[in-house]
Amino acid sequence: MNFFDHNAVIGAMPGIEGMLVVAGFSGHGFMQAPGVGQLLAEWIVDGKPSLDLSGLALERFRDGRVALEANVI
Predict the structure, then answer these.
(1) pTM for this model (two decimals)
(2) Which secondary structure element, helix H or strand E, spans residue 9, and what is its range?
């Protein structure tokens, strides 16, 4: 079974307080970078982003909540 879904990992790093991770865009990074940068800045300054990013959390792999990206092979 393939646990990877070709989407970014964005969110708090489990077990490391204050560490945020933004990685693994699988080719989408150039297109998504401006928006993700804005959300990361909000998270740092305001304590949370203005959009719900929980679907991109690292824990989704552990919990089996992957959302497959149909446009990436």
Answers:
(1) 0.79
(2) strand 9-12
Q: Which phi and psi angles does 58 have, rounded to 5°?
A: -60, -35
The number of residues in the chain equals 73
Asked if 6 and 69 touch (Cβ cutoff 8 Å), the reply is yes
DSSP 10-38: EEEPTTSTT-EEEE--TT-HHHHHHHHHH
Is there a contact between 67 and 5 (Cβ–Cβ < 8 Å)? yes
From first to last of its 73 residues, what are the pLDDT tens digits of the chain? 455 777 889 999 989 999 999 998 877 778 889 999 999 999 999 999 999 999 999 999 888 888 777 766 5
Cα–Cα distance list, 40 to 3, 12, 73 (Å): 25, 11, 27
